[in-house]
Every structure is written in structure tokens, then in C-alpha cells.
Amino acid sequence: MTQRGFTLLELVVIIAVIAILAAAVSPSALQRIMDTRVEATQSEARALYEGMVGGNNGADSFGFVGDIGRLPNSFQELVAPGGLPSYTTSTARGIGIGWRGPYVNSGTSADDYLNDAFGHAYTGASSGQVRSAGPDGVFNTSDDIVYPTVAPTITGTVNVTVKTLDSKNRTVVDPTGYSVELYFASDGVEATLTDAASPYSFTNVPIGLHAVRVIKNNGTIVAEDTVVVRPTGTAAAEIWF
Fold first, then answer.
1. Can you give the CATH number for the domain in which 233 is found?
2. Which of 14, 19, 99, 169 is at a distance of 20 to 30 A from 232, taking alpha carbons?
3. Other C-beta atoms within 10 Å of 162: how many?
4. How far apart are the first and last CA of the chain?
5. Containing domain of residue 169, as a range?
């Protein structure tokens, strides 16, 4: 029994058909792969950003900045503390201060979170704006992936009003003889600002949950409370004693 093989013409036709199919399918498949990598990078860039400053879900979560008082010097600080102080509580109101990460999931290997889906390193930790070089691997070109689109502001203002009642049960606003102290994180340790005269105001305060105290001139603590500072906003605290 003889076996019939393909003729040369048939082989040429088959190869041509395969080539046509490959030309038609490959660009579409490659584009899907590219789109998937772009989406993965966008998602990871957002996760890095939220690890730095907290999520945008209405909760009082301020990530690395809320605990340390500054943006990370590198993305590695989101996963390993390096020389940063360990998490502890502040003098006033027991508010947490210090490194309590990891602030992002490091992935399947120690440096997964450092690289985008194209294998290129992210930049921008110290600015709070995560940047990927994108598909072409070259920074500052049109395909860069950046989150957020504008570098964030990580400080706000705190205004404090002090109130008490006089002997006739009348409200006295900002009585004399008192000062206000603000407690916040600075490089992972507790720092204090003092305003000795009303109106009590503090600027360039890092975002996060902070404590405020009213101090009598003789050093007696008469009242304290907490205040939440949000980016570029003015937090108003009203403290009674």
C-alpha cells in the first residue's frame, strides 16, 4: 500500500495559510498581553501610592506618611523598616507613631513590588507619585504610567479653638494664660509644636491622626483631643475644659 504525501504546491499553500493566520492573530494576541501588563502596572502603582498615603475610601488611614510623618525615601521602606523606629504610642492620647508595615504586598519574591509588569523599576517614592517607564522602558515618554497624575500634597493646617466657662457659666473663647501643643510623627518619632497665643494655628502638619493638648501656663494639662489632618485641608479642633 503506497502512502501519498503532500505535493510541493500543497505544502506551499499550507504554509501560506499558516502565515496569513499568524499575521492576523499575533497582533491581536500581543495587544491583549500588552493591555494586561498595562492594567497590572496601573493597579500596582495605585497600591504603592495607597501604601504611602492611605486609601481613598473615607477611612482615616494614611499609610506610611500617617505613621512616619514623611514620604518614603524609597519603595523598600514600604516593606522593610530599615532604620526607622518601631511602632509605638505617643505621649498624648496614645496615638500610634512609627513603622508598622508592610504597607504593600511584596509579591512572590522580595522585589516584585519594585518592578512593573514590564520588568522595569518604579520611581517616585520621595515625591509620592509612582512612575513606570511603560511598555517602551524609557522614562518621560508618552507611554509612561503615572499614579496619581499630580504629585500629592501630604500636609495640612490645624486650627484649634479653646473654650471654657467663666464663673457666670458664660462661654469664654481662647482664654488667656494657656498654650496649645500639637503632637505628630516626624521621621517616625514623636514631635511637638507649641502655639503660645491665640489664634492657635499649625501649618505644614503631615497628614494623619494627631493629638492636641491645652496647657496652662504653670504646665498643667487641662484638656486634650485628637484631630485628623487631610491633604491641603484645614482641620478645626474645638477643645473644652
1. 2.60.40.1120
2. 99
3. 23
4. 108
5. 155-240
